Amino acid sequence: xxxxxxxxxxxxxxxxxxxxxxxxxxxxxxxxxxxxxxxxxxxxxxxxxxxxxxxxxxxxxxxxxxxxxxxxxxxxxxxxxxxxxxxxxxxxxxxxxxxxxxxxxxxxxxxxxxxxxxxxxxxxxxxxxxxxxxxxxxxxxxxxxxxxxxxxxxxxxxxxxxxxxxxxxxxxxxxxxx
Length: 178
Hints:
The protein is of the alpha+beta class. It contains six helices and seven strands; from the N terminus they run ααβααββαβββαβ.
C-alpha cells in the first residue's frame, strides 16, 4: 500500500518543482469546474509563462534554468492556499493556478503577488546575478466551462507576451464553448 501511494504520487508530481503535474492539474480542474457549476461560486485560472526562458538556459545554463523553475514552484506554493488552491507545472516553463472560490479580481491579485515576488528574486550563476519576469493570463470560469476558461487564460497569456511581457491580462471566460 505505501509503495503504491508513493508510485501514485510520482505519477501526479513534477519532480523538479514538487508541484502537481499537468495531468493532475487537469483532473483537479474538471472536479472543481463541476463543483463551480453546481454551486455558482467563483473559480479562476491563472496561466504563467517565464519570460525569455530559453535565454536563461542559453546564457546561464540548464542548471540555472532548473533553479528558476524550482524557485517559481516555491513562490507559487507560498502564495496559494493550502488544501484549496492548486499550483501546478503545466509544461516547460509554464505554470498554472487553479483558484476555487476566487473571482477574476482575486485571481489578478494573486497573479500580481507572484509577479512581484518573482521580479524581486535574484538568481546567481557563474558568479553573475540575474532576474526573470513572467507573463500571465487570467480567466474566471463561468458555468463550469473549464476547458473554455483554460483557452481564454492561454489566449490572455499570449496577449501579455505580445504586449511586451512582464504583465497580466485578465478576462471572464464568458459564453461560447469551443
